[in-house]
Amino acid sequence: MRKEHKIRVGISVGDLNGIGPEIIIKALEDKRMMDFYTPVIFASIKTMSFFKNHQQSEINFHGVDHFNQIIDSRVNVYNVWKEQVEINFGEESKAIGGYAIKSLERAVAALKKDEIDVLVTAPINKQNIQSESFNFPGHTDYIAKELNGKSLMFMVTDNLKVGLLTDHLPLKDVSSAITAEVIEGKINIIYNSLIKDFKTIRPKIAVLGINPHAGDNGVIGNEDDNLLRPVLHKFQEKGMLVYGPYAADSFFGSNNFKNFDAVVATYHDQGLIPFKTISFGEGVNYTAGLSKVRTSPDHGTAYEIAGKNTADASSFKQAIFTALKIFKNRAQHEKLSINPLKTSKK
């Protein structure tokens, strides 16, 4: 973190026809937020002024073309484009998808150069962003490629954290995508993230089964016995508190998740349905395992309410504060690792 600045939070605008700009404005309207960080929205002053006027917001934007123009006490808008953009709320548009990618690409470039410290991404439409130059399922895969890291979708709140072995895959491909290497790699990412990013001293992790009832001893598939259990046993031999596989159908309803620091789900809906049911509006999508911090809200573009000024910005606010907390926790962990406490001589 640069000493001369507060933490800079880069914000990509997402799909302009969705609720992204609305929740960004709502999250930043409170001037007291500037006491904690400096926001930098990657869009254009013309575009953000349109949304300000549409929402009848009193927010004041500071347009910049260079990072040395950023002012700590203001809501900065970095001009990625100059032209006026036609907004049609709730409409899926290839052109609008192009602006979402322009915002994301410039924000990620700034993140890589330390021009911003963390990145918070507003929701995109995974269909209209696709092009010859951008062929990724979403934010996570693109950011992982740009940062040369192995990422993991980690859905987090203060009381519930769910990581995924596989994320945006068709259900028919899930079983073949789960290998011993994948299981070991993803659990290691979660374990290290809990220590470095969330200050968990000795993480305790639960792993959900691949099959219903974790296979019922082979009656409903043998992947849990032949694949999951041996890998989990290796972790336990190392003294790591990694347990499972647990039957997914009763794990959350029984409140068993409260006994663990994190839960590992084997596929997208197995983890995200209970997560969003328990914590919708408060959850944050955190991309763990990378050298930089990126978070996003736990919802999508919400075309059906776009432009109505009814969107709830709670999850976006939480995404900002989670990014700040992780950034500070990482810095503290790094400082302690470099300068471990020495036993004083008597």
Explain what you see.
The chain is globular, with a radius of gyration of 21 Å. The mean pLDDT is 92. It has a twelve-stranded mixed sheet with strand order 3-4-2-1-5-12-11-6-7-10-8-9, sandwiched between helices. It is of the alpha/beta class. The protein contains ten helices and twelve strands. The longest helix is centred in the last third of the chain and has 25 residues, at 314-338. The relative contact order is 0.15.
Gist?
The protein is an alpha/beta fold and 346 residues long. The chain has helices spanning 20-28, 45-54, 94-112, 139-146, 171-177, 180-196, 223-237, 248-251, 268-279, 314-338, and strands at 8-12, 38-43, 61-64, 75-79, 118-121, 152-156, 161-164, 204-208, 241-246, 262-265, 284-288, 293-297. Strands 3-4-2-1-5-12-11-6-7-10-8-9 form a 12-stranded mixed sheet, with helices on both faces.
Shape category: globular
Summarize the helix and strand pattern as letters. EHEHEEHEHEEHHEHEHEHEEH
Physical arrangement of strands within the biggest beta sheet? 3-4-2-1-5-12-11-6-7-10-8-9
How many strand units? 12
- Helicity range: 25-40%
Instruction: Please tell me how large the radius of gyration is.
Output: 21 Å
Class from secondary-structure proportions: alpha/beta
Query: How far apart lie the N and C ends?
Result: 37 Å
- State the low-pLDDT regions, or none: none
Mean pLDDT: 92
